[in-house]
Amino acid sequence: MPGTLVAMPGVLPDGETVPVDGSLPATATTAVGARGFGVYVHVPFCASRCGYCDFNTYTAAELGGGASREGYADTVLAELALAARVLGDTPPPRVDTVFVGGGTPTLLPADDLARILDGIDRTWGLAADAEVTTEANPESVTPESLKLLRNAGYTRISLGMQSASPGVLAILDRRHSAGRATAAASEARDAGFEHVNLDLIYGTPGERAEDFAASLDQVVGAGVDHVSAYALIVEDGTRLAARMKRGELAYPSDDVAADRYLAAEAALDAAGLSWYEVSNWARTEDARCRHNLLYWTGADWWGLGPGAHSHVGGVRWWNVKHPSAYAQRLAAGASPGLAREVLTPGEAHMEDVMLRLRLASGLPLAVLDATGRAGAERALADGLLDAGRYAAGRAVLTLRGRLLADAVVRDLLP
Question: CA 392: distance to chain centroid?
Answer without folding.
Answer: 30
